[in-house]
Design goal:
Number of domains: 2
Order of helices and strands: HHEHEHEHEHEEHEHEHHEHEEH
Helix content: 40-55%
Distance between the termini: 54 Å
Largest sheet: 11 strands, mixed
Number of helices: 12
Structural class: alpha/beta
Strand content: 15-25%
Shape: globular
Oligomer: single chain
Strand order of the largest sheet: 3-2-1-4-11-10-5-6-9-7-8
CATH architecture of the largest domain: 3-Layer(aba) Sandwich
Radius of gyration: 20 Å
CATH topology of the largest domain: Isopropylmalate Dehydrogenase
Low-confidence stretches: 1-20
Number of strands: 11
CATH class of the largest domain: Alpha Beta
């Protein structure tokens, strides 16, 4: 089968459509079916962040609360021809103040989501993780990419490629659980989770293989719930059934993983960017483990990726509306 015909066969999976309905479009459609979430947008002072919030509001997914210097926000709105008259605009002087005030608004119960604007990620996360005033819970904060890879049949979740640099075993347990919770709460069911390493056998020479085996045993003992885990698995035998067959790996996960857990941030960052630039994937992303989900987008994200990030966060927030929140730290 030629590469072109393989792509066509993969896209044909699922409800018939011409052109085929993307994974993100199904996610966004699902989010439109739940109440819009009040979303605190921190420092939306460039075109991509303000237009992203406005597009999500237009789609009926979020109700934005803009936090930033009014002169800058209004100037961007004029330049981009975006009508923000119906949005609440909270006056702060600069990006650092916007991050602090955005976190305060969450504490005050004014918003269900936090959304990054045109400030640096580190600046926002400092406010989120502040010991006395932040949004920490008992759960480790981690990031999940929700990736739509055109040549792959299913949505891939990839974690953690943005927050935890060299997570230890306890951190990895939370990283896995955060991703599993997101997967199930956006309505995708019970996920198959691959704990990635360079090889599929446990060896003391590669510490990530030992962590992978321990995480699988933690799932067996109920320390990780709501998912099927397998690992260590190399990337090829995690996502390709034929690669798993050749290696003689028999499990529900091998060759059919839906969540990919990387050993560290470097590996995750390179894998995510490889999928984006070589496989033309779209990458949405949110941060979990805080009191509310955090929509973490970049200026390079497409409008569809921004909408998908908002959609995933809204579905997650909606699932938690009638559930007791994770205890604060």
């Amino acid at each position: 089968m030629t590469p072109e015909s393989e792509i066509g066969a993969i896209q044909a999976i699922g409800p018939a459509a011409s052109p085929p309905v993307s994974k993100y479009e199904r996610l966004i459609a699902r989010a439109k079916g739940v109440p819009a979430a009040k979303t605190v947008v921190v420092h939306p002072c460039d075109e991509s962040s303000l237009c992203g919030a406005a597009e999500a509001a237009k789609a009926g997914i979020i109700v934005p609360i803009l936090v930033g210097p009014p002169a800058k926000v209004n100037a961007v709105a004029r330049d981009c021809n975006v009508d923000i008259r119906d949005f609440e605009l909270v006056d702060v002087a600069h990006s650092e103040a916007a991050a602090a005030r955005g976190v305060e608004l969450i504490h005050e119960g004014k918003g269900e989501l936090l959304m990054k604007g045109s400030l640096h990620t580190d600046e926002l996360m400092r406010a989120v993780t502040a010991t006395s005033t932040g949004l920490r819970t008992a759960r480790r904060i981690s990031h999940v990419f929700v990736m739509d890879v055109p040549t792959h049949a299913e949505t891939l979740f990839l974690t953690d490629a943005a927050i935890n640099v060299f997570p230890d075993l306890d951190a990895k347990r939370d990283i896995v659980q955060n991703a599993v919770d997101l997967f199930s709460q956006v309505g995708l069911g019970v996920p198959r989770v691959a704990i990635l390493s360079a090889v599929e056998t446990v060896t003391a020479k590669i510490p990530s293989t030992i962590d992978a085996a321990a995480l699988c045993k933690m799932a067996d003992r109920g320390q990780i719930t709501g998912a099927i885990l397998d690992g260590p698995l190399a990337y090829d035998n995690a996502i390709d059934p034929e690669a798993a067959r050749i290696k003689g790996i028999q499990s529900a996960v091998a060759g059919n993983a839906q969540i990919l857990v990387v050993p560290n941030l470097e590996a995750g960052n390179m894998l995510a960017k490889n999928l984006v630039y070589m496989a033309k994937a779209d990458s949405a992303g949110i941060v979990l483990g805080a009191r509310v989900p955090i929509v973490l987008t970049s200026r390079a994200d497409s409008v569809r990726s921004r909408l998908a990030s908002c959609a995933a966060a809204v579905l997650y927030a909606n699932a938690r509306r009638n559930v007791t929140a994770v205890p604060e730290a």
